Structure formats: structure tokens, C-alpha cells
Amino acid sequence: MIQPVDRYVHRERLMRGSDQRSGSLFSYVDLESRVRGDHPLRPIREIVNGALSALSADFEAIYAAGIGRPSIPPERLLRALLLQAFYGIRSERQIMERLEYDLLFRWFVGLGVDDASWDQTTFGKNRDRLLAGDVAHKFLAAVLAHPRVKRLLSTEHFSVDGTLIEAWASMKSFRPKDGSGGPPAPGRNGEGDFHGQSRTNDSHESTTDLDARLYRKGPGREAKLCFMGHALMENRHGLVVDACLTKADGHAERIAGLHMIEPRADRPGRITLGADKGYDAVDFVNELRSINVAPHVAAKANGSAIDGRTTRHAAYKASQVIRKRIEEVFGWTKSAAGLRKTRHRGLGRVGWQFTLTMAAYNLIRLPKLLALA
């Protein structure tokens, strides 16, 4: 006779599901139904697909001279690289690993459940084509030109700033240009003693990345081999409207700022440009005024090029408050997107990655902005 307690245990065993895995010959999985309707990637994917459709003619021109078997669609490559920025994935090899088992990633990129993913070396083979076609800048412009995004942008008030992107190069690779100096110590990470040596960009260069420059962010800070990334932000919602990357030097920020704001000054009425004290230089301020741009630059305590003609306006004070939001762009770029130290070498490749990451920043902001619009 089964006791009451035993009968309870017996019933539990009958109700327990099996842990054994059973395969099936056919699997019917609709990726569209697996992604919830309010997922933030849904509006992002809509904007991305619209921007990529606008670049279809550019893709045709880039791949027009190709022969042989069809390539991986560049649209899928770009969607995968955007996911890398969204989720801070360290390498392209890890992107392909996620595409093997992550249904959300497959849905966003455009792969079906049974579609084979590609090898990570495909990114390197196609990056040169996309770099030659300036696809990163065109994609950023196409995102901003999307009808749902364009109405969010300000065409009158902007802010500019720059940030350092650490190069993929060791300080031990920074060696004399004339070939002098002893050979590097043997071993994978050989010892090196640089005390008492004067190393400058005029006399030394990196043997790993010739475009990287030794630069110190400020007094008392360590010097690093790096590049300088620049972003132009519109002040209404803090979206990046232009981006570029240059070699790191003391004049790069002001030169890049003029380069990015000048095309937007060709319109009726005066526009404003907010910036920090690093842009408070007579030549920069005069150049802005000559192209009808109000220089809303933070004034230095001594010897400032900004005077009462600018600071007396309420718009100047508003620009000084809003311009600091551009630090949020760089903060996300370096922390979430993993661009504190680049994974590529050379001004062209690093600049391409930086610009695409700026487009990714805009895209992650859009779901909330579009919901409020």
C-alpha cells in the first residue's frame, strides 16, 4: 500500500518534464515573431534599412568591377558592425560567434535561422572597399537624412569637441626615424629603458602605426600614442551630425571644427558653435565670424578672444550649458562601444571605425527620441 507521502512523491515524478534533448528533422522558426514588438532594435533596424537602401547605388559602384562569386552583402556586414558597437563586442570573431546562436543578432543582420554565417576574415577583405567608397560618412549622412530623423535636428545651433583615441601601438614601437638606437630587447615583451631619452614626434615614429602620434592630454598627464577624433553635435537633441579623425596635435581640434561647421554656415541667418576653452584662439574665432558663425566658445581667464559682443547674449549661456553634452557622446564611444583603444591601424581605418561608431551612437538614441516626437 502506498503511503500518502509516497503517493505525493510519485505524482511529482510523473509531472516532471524530461531533460533529454530530442532533435527534429524540421524546424519552423519565425525570427520576426521571436523579437518582441517593443524591442529597441526594431525602430533602429527600420532607420538602418532606410539608410542602407539610400546607399544601394554606392554599393553597386563599389562592387561593379568585381568578378567571381557574389560577395557577402555589404548591408549585412554594416549591420553586424553596428551590433558590435551597440553591445561593445571586442572583436569581429566574437560577432560571428554570436551570430551562430543569437536569434536577435540574426534577425537584425538579415540572416535566416538556417542561413550560414560568414568567416570573420570577410570583414577585412571588404573593409578596404567600403573605406574607398567613404561608406561610413555616407551612412552617417543617410541616417540623418531619414525623414523621421531629419525633423529632430537643429540647423542653427551646434557644438564641437575632440577626444583622444589610443592607437593600437606600444610605446616600445616609438623609435628614432633615422634608425639610431639599439635594437629592441629580444622576447615577446622585452625590457626597455627610456629614462633620459628625448622622444618627440619630430625625431621618432611608431614602427607599428606610422599615423599614430605621441600626445599628452594636459600637464602632468602621461603621453600616449594616439589619434584625435572630432565630432560636431546639433544642440536640440545632442545627435552627431559630422565626425572625422585626425593625427593628434595641438591645432587639430580647431582645424577639424572649421572643416565640419563651414558647410553648415552656407544658409540664411547666423548659426552658433559652442566649444570649450581649447578653441579660444584668435584665428579660430575670427574664422568663425568671417563665415557668419557666432563663436560660443568658453572664454579663457586671461587673453581670451571672446568679448562682450558674444558673452552678453542669452544664447551664449545656453550654448555653454548644452555643449557639455558632447562628452556623453565620447563617454559612450569609449565605454559602451569599446573605442577607448582602437582595434585597427592607420588613419583611414581608424577614422572609418570612429565615424561608424558616431552613427551607432545616433541610432541608440533614436528609439526614445522618436517615441517622444
Task: Kindly summarize this structure in a few lines.
This protein is of the alpha/beta class. It has helices spanning 4-15, 31-34, 41-54, 56-62, 74-87, 92-101, 103-109, 121-132, 135-145, 147-150, 252-261, 282-290, 308-311, 314-322, 326-335, 347-372; strands spanning 157-166, 174-176, 204-206, 213-216, 223-234, 240-247, 271-275, 293-297. A hairpin with a 5-residue loop joins strand 5 and strand 6.
Mean pLDDT: 88
Q: State Rg.
A: 26 Å
User: First CA to last CA: what distance?
Assistant: 71 Å
From the helix content, strand content and strand pairing, which structural class follows?
alpha/beta
Number of strands: 8
Q: Tell me the helix content.
A: 40-55%
The largest sheet, given as strand count, sense and whether it forms a barrel, is: 6 strands, mixed
Individual helix count: 16
Q: Oligomer, anyone?
A: single chain
Q: Could you name the ranges where pLDDT drops below 50 across 5 or more consecutive residues?
A: none
> Quick one: overall form?
globular
What's the order of the H and E elements?
A: HHHHHHHHHHEEEEEEHEHEHHHH
Strand content: 5-15%
Question: How does this model look, in words?
Answer:
The protein is of the alpha/beta class. Helix content is 44%, strand content 13%. The chain has 16 helices and eight strands. It has helices spanning 4-15, 31-34, 41-54, 56-62, 74-87, 92-101, 103-109, 121-132, 135-145, 147-150, 252-261, 282-290, 308-311, 314-322, 326-335, 347-372; strands spanning 157-166, 174-176, 204-206, 213-216, 223-234, 240-247, 271-275, 293-297. Strands 1, 4, 5, 6, 7 and 8 form a six-stranded mixed sheet that branches. Strands 2-3 form a two-stranded antiparallel ribbon. The longest helix has 26 residues, at 347-372.
